[in-house]
Amino acid sequence: MNAKSRSRLIELRRDLHRRPEIGWREFYTTGRIVEELEDIGPDELYVGREIHREERIRPPTDDQLARARERALETGVDEDVLERVADGYTGALAVLERGEGPTVLVRVDIDGLPQSESEDPDHVPAAEGFRSEYGERMHACGHDAHAAIGVGVLEAVAESDFEGTLKVLFQPAEELGAGAASVVGSGHLEDVDSLLAVHVGLDVETGVVIPGIESFLAINGFEATFEGAPAHAGNSPHEGAHAIQALSTAVGNLHAIPRHGDGATRINVGVVEGGTATNIVPESASLQGEVRGATTELRNYVEDHAARVLRSAAEAHDCEVDVSFRDGAPSAECDDTLVDAVSAAAAGRDATVTPDEGDALGGSEDATRLMRAVQRSGGDATYVGFGASNPTGHHTATFDVDEAVIPLAVDTLADMVRALSA
Amino acid sequence: MNAKSRSRLIELRRDLHRRPEIGWREFYTTGRIVEELEDIGPDELYVGREIHREERIRPPTDDQLARARERALETGVDEDVLERVADGYTGALAVLERGEGPTVLVRVDIDGLPQSESEDPDHVPAAEGFRSEYGERMHACGHDAHAAIGVGVLEAVAESDFEGTLKVLFQPAEELGAGAASVVGSGHLEDVDSLLAVHVGLDVETGVVIPGIESFLAINGFEATFEGAPAHAGNSPHEGAHAIQALSTAVGNLHAIPRHGDGATRINVGVVEGGTATNIVPESASLQGEVRGATTELRNYVEDHAARVLRSAAEAHDCEVDVSFRDGAPSAECDDTLVDAVSAAAAGRDATVTPDEGDALGGSEDATRLMRAVQRSGGDATYVGFGASNPTGHHTATFDVDEAVIPLAVDTLADMVRALSA
Amino acid sequence: MNAKSRSRLIELRRDLHRRPEIGWREFYTTGRIVEELEDIGPDELYVGREIHREERIRPPTDDQLARARERALETGVDEDVLERVADGYTGALAVLERGEGPTVLVRVDIDGLPQSESEDPDHVPAAEGFRSEYGERMHACGHDAHAAIGVGVLEAVAESDFEGTLKVLFQPAEELGAGAASVVGSGHLEDVDSLLAVHVGLDVETGVVIPGIESFLAINGFEATFEGAPAHAGNSPHEGAHAIQALSTAVGNLHAIPRHGDGATRINVGVVEGGTATNIVPESASLQGEVRGATTELRNYVEDHAARVLRSAAEAHDCEVDVSFRDGAPSAECDDTLVDAVSAAAAGRDATVTPDEGDALGGSEDATRLMRAVQRSGGDATYVGFGASNPTGHHTATFDVDEAVIPLAVDTLADMVRALSA
Amino acid sequence: MNAKSRSRLIELRRDLHRRPEIGWREFYTTGRIVEELEDIGPDELYVGREIHREERIRPPTDDQLARARERALETGVDEDVLERVADGYTGALAVLERGEGPTVLVRVDIDGLPQSESEDPDHVPAAEGFRSEYGERMHACGHDAHAAIGVGVLEAVAESDFEGTLKVLFQPAEELGAGAASVVGSGHLEDVDSLLAVHVGLDVETGVVIPGIESFLAINGFEATFEGAPAHAGNSPHEGAHAIQALSTAVGNLHAIPRHGDGATRINVGVVEGGTATNIVPESASLQGEVRGATTELRNYVEDHAARVLRSAAEAHDCEVDVSFRDGAPSAECDDTLVDAVSAAAAGRDATVTPDEGDALGGSEDATRLMRAVQRSGGDATYVGFGASNPTGHHTATFDVDEAVIPLAVDTLADMVRALSA
User: Which residues does the annotation say bind Mn(2+) (chains A, B, C, D) (predicted)?
Assistant: First the structure.
C-alpha cells in the first residue's frame, strides 16, 4: 500500500475512533464510510435498510434514535445517508464486479461500546488527540480499524487484477449480537463462495495472522425484571417484597453456577438497575446479562441453570420475575480448504501465520451466523485474525491497536481475495 | 370550619396530589401554597431561600432543577414565586402577629415521593380524577393533606381571638431527610415557645388524635459506589473486578445485619444501578440506602455494621468502594406539658385521644431536628398525629387519606394554638 | 438463711457447674438434686419418667443416652436414681404438704448448654476451680444456680409456717424448648393455684427483683436437610447438585428476612453440617435454627418466610429440601394479682423491685407452656427475675452469676410462697 | 490371562470393593494385597512405613487410626501386616529383579472415598452382592480394580521373559492428594527408568487405551475456620459475631470466583460444619474445599481469589478466619518416547488406542508428583488410561467398572513392561 492510502486509512480510523456509536445507531460511522466508498466507486452500494431484513434483534428505542440522529446532524453527516439509516438500520455493503469468478465476501463490523475511554497520557488516543469525544462511548474492540480495513480492501482489490465479485460488508451492531442476524435474511449471502470475517487485536502481536479462528463461544443474552411490593422501609418493611434483595440473590447464584467439565462456560450480569428511593422497599429491579459456552450445548447448560436461579431468587423474596433470553450467536467452524488458502496467501506477506490459539480467545462473535449461512448455501467460510499488539484487553478503557495492522491487514486480505480467484 | 373553607382545602389537597414534587423541587407546590397564603394575608411571608440557611443536605443537581422548573412553568406557576425558589430552596413560612403572647410554630411538610401511583379504580384518587399526573411521582405519605391543613390553620387562627404569634412552616424535602436541617440554621426558630409538628394517616382511623408521638426512629442515609475493573466478559473475565457482584454481596449481607436485642433497627437498600453492557465485566455500580434505630445508638450500631459490610464486599471482589453516610434525623422526645395541653384541646373536639402507640409506627421524621432545636432554645415541642383511615400503608401505590381529616385537624390544631395563648 | 445453708447451696451450685449436662441427659444433675431433696425429706418425690407424659420434643438418641449414662456412672451417681432417669426422662418434682391452703409451684430448670467454658483467669469459675470439666458443655445460663435455689426454697418453706401445698419442679431440657411440654401432660399442674417460674441474671444487677417478666419471645425451632447430587468435583462438577451451595444461599437469605414493623423478630441458624470430601460435590447438607417473635403472629411471620427461603434456596441449586418446624414455646402473660403479691413480698426483703424491663430481655422460655397450662386450669402464673450482676451475656463463654443471688432468691421466694398462703 | 487368574483378580477386586478404606487407613486393603503378593513371591516386598518418608500430608488423627484398626482386626487382617501399617503409613511396593535391564515402575492406587454406595438393584455391586459393607465409604473411583490390576501385572511379568527390574507400587491416600508426596522422598524412585501410572474408567468404553493422559488439573486443598463471638440468639444477637453467616457468605462468593479466560478452573467447598445449638449465635464454623486449574498458574489464580474471599467474608461478619492451603498435586506432562512405546504395545493387544481426550477428563492426580520426580531423575513417565464403560461418573453412588478391564489392563501393561526391556 502506498503512503497516501495508508495515511488516509489511519486518518479514517482515528476519525471514527473519536465518534464511537452504539449498534443500530452508527449514523456518523455509516455516513463516513459511505463517503469513502463513493470515492472508490464500487459497482453497487447498499446502505442501511437495503442490507437487512425487517425483523431485528434488540432494535433501538425511538428516544435512542432521536438522540443519536441529533448528534449525528451536529457532526455534519451527509443528510441523504442519514435519511437512509435514520430508522436505525445501519451499515453498508459495497460490491465490485470484475467478470467471471468466485464471489468473495469480506466482513468487518463497525460499532462501538457503551463505556468511557481512558484519559491516561500513556493511552495513545489520548496522547495523540483522537480519544472519544462522547462520554460513555468508546471503540474498545477495534471496530474503528475494521472499518478502515474494509475500505482499504475494497480499494486494493479494485486496483488489482482480481476476477470475480467482491463484496465488502460493513456490519452494524455486532456488540449487541444483533447485526449479523438481519443480514442473513437479506439475500446478500446466497451467492457467496468464500466468506472472510476479520478481527484485529486478540492479545496477539502485530505481524501475526491467524487464518482460521474456531474458538468463539456460543452466546445468548438475557434480561430479568423482578417485581415485588413497595412498603415504607421504616414502619412496615414486612409488608414489602424486596426486588433488590431478589436481584442480589440472583446475581450471586448466577455467577456461582457450576463450571462444566466438558469445556468453557461463561456468565456475566453486566447491567443492573432498581428502586426509586431509600425509604421505600424497592418494588422493581432488573438485570441484563449473557451466557456463553464452548458449544451450543454448554451455553444451553448455563442458560437452563440461569433460568432456574432467577426464578428461585424471586421466590426467596416473594417477588415475581419476568425472564427473557434472546438469540445470540452460535459457535461455528472454519472450512479447512479456505483456511489453507488464506494461510498460503498470508505466508507470502511476511506474516507469522499461526493456527488458532484456542481457548485463550474465548470471545463470541455474531459473524458465526454469517459463516453458518454461507456454509448452508454451499460456500466456505473462515474467521481471520490479525495481531495488533493491543496494550490492554478488549473492552477495557485503555484498549488500543497498533495502527500498523491496518496496511498489513489490507494487503494480506487483498492477497487472499485475489488468491481465491486464481 | 364552614363548608366553603372545607371545600377549598380539599380542592387544594387534590390539586397538590395531582402534581407531586420531589424535595427541593417543590416549585408548583410552593407557588400554589403561597397563592393561598396571600389570600389570607399573613403579617409576614417568607418564601424559598428566606427560610433556609445556605448549606443543605442532598441538594438537587442542575439538571434536576432545570427539568423541574420547565415542568412548573408549563403548569402556570406565578413567575415571581418561581424565581424565588428556582435555585432549589423551596417551601414557605407564614407569620401572624396578634399582640402579646407566646410564639407557636405549626409545621407541615409538602414534598412527594419518587414512585408511581396506582390506577386501580378502587383507589380514590384514580376513581375521582386527581391521581398523579406525573410518572414515578406520588403523594404517598399525605403531605398534600399536610399543606392544606397548614393553610387551614393559618386561616382559622387568623379569624380567632388568638393572642401571640403564630408561625406556619411549609417545610420542603422531608422525605430526603433534608428540609428541616437548613431551617434550623435560618433564625426562624429561636423565639418559638411551642412547636407542633403534624402528621396524618399512621394506619390509625379518622377521629383519633395522638398528642405526642415519640416512636420515631433515628435515621441516616448512605451511598456506596463500587469501582472494579472492566474486562471482556467472554475472553478475559479473570481480568475484571466485578462491581455488580460486589454490590450484590453487600446487599445480601446488609439486610442480614443481626437484629439488636435492645430495640428496633432497620436497613433498606432502596436504589441500585451499575454496569453498561452485558459483554463487559461491570466496572462500576452504586447503591443508596438507609439505616434506622429506635435510638441514635441503635442506628449507629447498624451504620457501623453497614460500613464494614460494604468494605468487605468490595474486598471480596477486588473492588474499591466509596461509602458516605449523610446526616438524617435523630430521635426526639415530646414535652409532657405541651402534650398535656394539646391533649386537653383535642379532647374538647370530640376526638379520641390516645397515647403514642409506640413501636408500631416505626417511621422517621426530620421534624425531630426542629423539635430538638426548639428545645435547645428553651421551648417545648410535640409531634401530633391525626388518624386518617389510610387504606394501605404509607409509601405504597394505593396510599390515600380520608379527607375528613383535613377539617378535623385544622379545627383541632387551631384549638390547640389558642389554648397555648390562654 | 443461715451461713450453713448458704454454703451448702453454693457448694451445690458449683458442683453442678462442674458437670453441665444437655437436656434429657441431666443424669448427674438429677441424681445430685435428688440426694439433696431426700435430706430435706419432702412428702412426695417424683423422679424422671414420673413427671413427664410419654411423648417428648427432641428426645435424645440411643447413642447420646449411652454416652451420658457412662459418664454419669463414672461420677458416682446413685444407681437407683440413674435407673429411674436412664431412658432420658430427667428432672424431679418435690412436694410439701402442709395442710389446707393453696397449691404453689416453684419451677426451676436444670440443663446446660453445648458450648465451651472460658479458661480466662478473670472468669470466676476458672479462678475458683469449678469450671466445667466437660468439653463443649457449660452452664452458661444460670440453671446451676436455679437448681440450688429450688433446693433452698423447699428447705426454707419446710421450716416455715406455710399452710398449703408447695411443689418445686426441677425441669429438664429447657434449652431444647422441650422439657416443659411433657410436664404439661403429666397431671402435676392441674391443681396448681399459683406458678412462680424463676430466672437469674438477665443483665440486671444483684438485688433487683422483677416480679413479672412478660417480654419472652415466642419461639419455634427448625431443621432443614438439602439433598443434591454428588459428582466428581474436578471432572464433572456440572453433574452435581451442590447441597452446600444451597445451604449457604439459605443461610444468607434467612438472616435477611425483613424486620417486622410491629415488633421484635429473631432468626438464627445455629448449626450446620454437610459434605464428605473436598473432591466430591456435596450431596447432603443440613442446618438447624430457630425463629422468634414478640408475639405468636410475629414468630409465624418469620417462620413462613423461612420456609419459603429454604425451598427456593434448594431450587436455586437443583436440590431437594426437607424442612421441619417443631413446637417451641408461645409467649405468655403474667397475672397482675400474682405479680402484685410477689412484688409486695419482695419489697419486704430490701430488694429493688422493678417492673419488666421489656424488650431488652428478648429471650424465650418454655416456662410459658407451664404458665399457659396453669392459667387454662384457672390458676395464676408469673415469671420472676432475680438480677445477678452477670459479667457477660447469657450463652457466652464467660457468663457467670453473682452467687449472692442464691440466698437472696431463696429467701424472697420463700416469702412469696408464704405470702400466697396467708 | 488364564481363566483362573482372571477369576482370582475379579474376586480380589470384589473383596476390596466390599471394604473401602479412606487414605492412610487402608489396613484391610494393604493386608489383602500383601497376602496376594506373597503368593506370587516378589524378590522384595516393602510394606507401610518402608515406602514412605516420615513427613506426610493430611495424616490421620489418633482416633481415626484407632477406629480403623479395630474394624480391620474384626475382618481378620494378618496381625503382622497390621502392625507394620498400624501407625497409618499404608500401601506396599513389590519388586521383581530379573537381571540386567531397565527399571520399570507400575503405579496403582488403593484408597476409597467417604461416601455411601447405591443400593439400586441396577447397580452391579448391589445386585451381585459385593456392595460396600461400610456406611459412608465406597470405592467410587475404581481403585479396587487398580489394586487387582497391580497384582495381576506382577504375576504376569513374573511369568514372562522380562529382563530388568519391575516395581509395582500400591499407593495409598491418592484421594487425599497425599500418598504420592511421601513416596517421593522414600528412595524408591531414583532408579526408575520408566513410570507407568494407571487409571481405569474415565467415562471411556472398555477396550479403549489412552497411552498418555496429560489433562490432569493442578490441585490444592484448603481449610478455613471462622471464629466469631457467641451470644444468646434471642436477647442479644447484636453481641454475637455469626461464624455461620461468615461461612455462608464465603461459600457463595468462592463458587462465584470469575472463570478464567485461559483455561479450566475449579473450586469446590466439599465439607462444612459449625455451631453447637440453635439458640446460640455460632462462635465457630469451618469449611474444607479445593481449587484446581489446567495449569499451576490457573490453580494459583483461584487460590489467590479464594484467600481474599475467605478473609472478606470473615470481616463482613466481624469474625476472624484462619485459612490454610495444603500442597495438592501439580500438572505433569507425559514423555513422548514412552507414550509411543506403550502405544505400540497396546496396539498389539487389539485395543483401540486413542490420544488424550483432553479437557473432558478434568480430574487431578497425585501421580503427577511421581511423574515429576522420575523425570527429575532422568527417567520417563506416562499416565495410561483404560476405558471401563463406567455407567455413571467417578465419585457418584452408582459408579462401577466393567470388570473386563482387569484382564485387559493386566495383559496390556505386561506387554508394555516387556516392550520396555526389549
Answer: 141, 143, 175, 199, 395
